[in-house]
């Protein structure tokens, strides 16, 4: 269990966690600036909801197709090196976007190709980083590390969209250049972490059993399976992020700065909730609180879909972020806290695919549905579907609903 009496800021006394957290902040900043720039750039070129959805699909496919490999790599090689090389790749991809924004002819396919490279880099970085975090801090500080890590990421997600929207006024190349610099700095910080894992004397053979061990572990642990699949289905159906350029341009009639403000709101809600969880971690009824948070997420999404006011839309997105943070906190604690270290990379890789499916594949789903029935009906129906999912998962996974403590006693 985590020690509820430990000061909630004590984790920052750990130098490796400071390096890790700073890198996460920089990459969160870069991803959000990049998302604003790519979304507005693609919509400006195409005026197509489907084109926005395809950006999410291009980002997600590498994580899905390479999940078994990326998890195996994270459990076999130095996770610091894997993450540092992945972030260097992301920096190079952003330099490619910079070059296209400056010299491009208006064709859309190079953007999708570079987004695939970005998705591949993330596919290797995420399992390595998720598996690395529990090894950097003592178990007594693990819950605090999860919450502060999420808070740093979400803080960057507040600043990133606003900064991206502001810099976009100077041109998309400026945004992509700034993102490339952030990724390069993050790569150097991860490489500087002092923690060194025990040397691998014998690498496991690459077999279906070793590659699929993460899937097997999740299947055999209903609480983990329920938590991961709940997030997958709920955000897949209820996410509205991909459609924010349409709402900004055609519903709320605001420009790139307004889009940046809208994209910042879920992160603002999430960072406030993450700080609250760092100071007052969940002590009881963890599974039930996760189900309730997903229900609130669905209600707030419905409110956003019906809103024609910028302030109300921002408030609804703020609530979605706060509710989602509770779900993320519970899920990540289950996944990272209970999985044996030797399998943590493979389990985290599968978790990454589920997260990607809920976010990037959810963007594709939202864009496709919006192209068929319109952006507003797509968001409202998605929010209603999320409410149904929250109710259904309590019955499908009774062990999740009944789970009391975040971590097992002992």
State mean pLDDT (0 to 100 scale): 83
Structural class: mainly alpha
Which consecutive residue ranges, at least 5 long each, have pLDDT under 50?
Answer: 1-5
Percentage of residues in helical conformation: over 70%
Please summarize the sheet with the most strands: none
Strand content bin: under 5%
Note the overall shape. globular
Number of helices: 17
Distance N to C terminus: 6 Å
Structural Rg: 20 Å
Report the order of strands and helices.
HHHHHHHHHHHHHHHHH
How many strand units?
0
Detail the topology: elements first, then pairings:
Blueprint: H1 15-46, H2 49-65, H3 67-76, H4 79-103, H5 109-136, H6 142-168, H7 172-191, H8 208-211, H9 213-219, H10 222-238, H11 244-251, H12 256-279, H13 286-306, H14 310-338, H15 344-373, H16 375-396, H17 398-402
Quick recap:
The protein has about 400 residues and is mainly alpha-helical. The chain has 17 helices and no strands.
Task: Note the main attributes of this structure.
410 residues, mainly alpha, disordered N terminus
Could you please describe the fold and organization of this structure?
This protein is mostly helical. The protein is 80% helix and 0% strand. Helix 6 (142-168) runs antiparallel to helix 12 (256-279), helix 10 (222-238) packs antiparallel against helix 14 (310-338) and helix 10 runs parallel beside helix 15 (344-373).
